[in-house]
Design a protein that fits this description.
The protein folds into 2 domains: 8-76; 83-151, no CATH class. The chain is 68% helix and 0% strand. The protein has 158 residues and is mostly helical. It has 5 helices and no strands.
Amino acid sequence: MPTRSQKPTLDLSISGVLIALSVFVLWGVKEIPPPFFDPIGSAAFPKYTAYIIIALALGIALRASFALRNTVAPSKESFREEPLLAVSVVALSALYTLSMQLELLSFRWATIVFIFLLSTALSKFEKRVMIISAVIGFVFGFGGQYLFTEVFYIDLPQ
């Protein structure tokens, strides 16, 4: 069952932007020269894509306009700002990248530590989440190292 949007005005705005972009694409498609050998034409794909985007955006806008009529004021208790948590997420992400850039940790160990510390901070030191995040960290660290180096042949920090 689809959930209703919490911000119908945002849905309306995004729908309007998507429709405007699609109109610009349709306007630009007029300048594509007609094909010599292709019966459909080279402009068919962007044209039909723009039509599909317009149709979907109109559907979202219609749903959002109905939701806008039936909105109730959101309660103040549903969201609590935590600037320290936000700063810690950004700092951990920067330290993750910096530790590999300065060659302090390899990709494998930096990923394990990053996933563990980030999920620990986000769960506010809940023990069950810390255990699961340690396992997930090892899977992503060792699995990512294997996937990137052996399957995709990407050089990672060692």
